[in-house]
Amino acid sequence: MIINERLALDVEEETDLREQDWGIWEGLTRTEISEKYGEILEEQVKSGWSFRPPGGENRLELSQRVQSALSSYAQKYPGEKILVVSHQGVIKSLIYFIEKRRFQPDEPKLIDKNSLHTNAWYNNSFSKVEYNINC
Fold this sequence. Notes:
CATH topology of the largest domain: Rossmann fold
Number of strands: 2
Radius of gyration: 16 Å
Strand order of the largest sheet: 1-2
CATH superfamily of the largest domain: Phosphoglycerate mutase-like
CATH class of the largest domain: Alpha Beta
CATH architecture of the largest domain: 3-Layer(aba) Sandwich
Number of helices: 4
Structural class: alpha+beta
Largest sheet: 2 strands, antiparallel
Shape: globular
């Protein structure tokens, strides 16, 4: 893992931190999805947390899966700092949950791609520390 060349940390792979299951849209670009499934995509985008690619998982299921995995790590390593490297959608699902976002297209952008975001686990819940830290 390139990010770990300097850090030399122990690495654990966690399948529950994988990206959202995109069902029949898996492997397609946004343009291809728009061209082939434009109406379905448009309706799904409006559905916020219920956004579900055909045959895939919805954003709420993704968020619950991610929160469960991260809370397990927080309990496994109490008081420790844990670095998680994942897809933007995984990170966004956690941050949008923390921020009580609706996952609607009219909401202002909250996080930038390729940035570091810190969150805390305290009293069995996640909270914001800092977003969009440039690396």
